[in-house]
Design goal:
Elements (H helix, E strand, L loop, with lengths): L8 E3 L1 H13 L3 E5 L9 E5 L10 E6 L2 E5 L1 H7 L2 E9 L13 E9 L2 H10 L1
Parallel strand pairs: 1-6, 2-5
Antiparallel strand pairs: 2-3, 4-5, 6-7
């Protein structure tokens, strides 16, 4: 990925702290931005290898040493936004590694400005 391009995914300090906690138990994890089934639109955290990345999934980038993916169809809807992983009090998704930790991951979004969108279009 070109370092000059805007990041498609970032994380808050709270999310990075929760990722680090989870990685103590599961050294290699991935995120997949859920599409609304089962656990709503929560970012789901899985042990690497427990979730099959599909051929149409898009890798948004890495946060806290962890790759973040989204389905291709959902990416088409969200491609004008930066995904911001956050952690808030609550219970994680049933199948996500944040479950049972009294904190859960939450996806926030920020719309790219015109210059950022142009850079991403030219850079891809």
């Amino acid at each position: 990925m070109n370092a000059d391009l805007p990041k498609r995914v970032t994380a808050t300090e709270a999310a990075l702290s929760l990722i680090a906690e989870i990685r103590q138990d599961h050294p290699k994890v991935i995120f997949h931005q859920s599409g609304g089934c089962c656990d709503g639109s929560s970012p789901m955290c899985y042990p690497e290898g427990d979730f099959k990345i599909g051929e149409h999934d898009v890798k948004l980038g890495d946060v806290g040493g962890t790759p973040v993916y989204i389905s291709g169809s959902q990416f088409e809807v969200w491609k004008h936004t930066q995904l911001i992983l956050d952690a808030v009090p609550g219970r994680g998704g049933m199948f996500s590694l944040d479950n049972g930790r009294e904190r859960r991951f939450l996806a926030r979004a920020r719309t790219f400005d015109g210059d950022e969108l142009e850079a991403l279009t030219i850079g891809s």
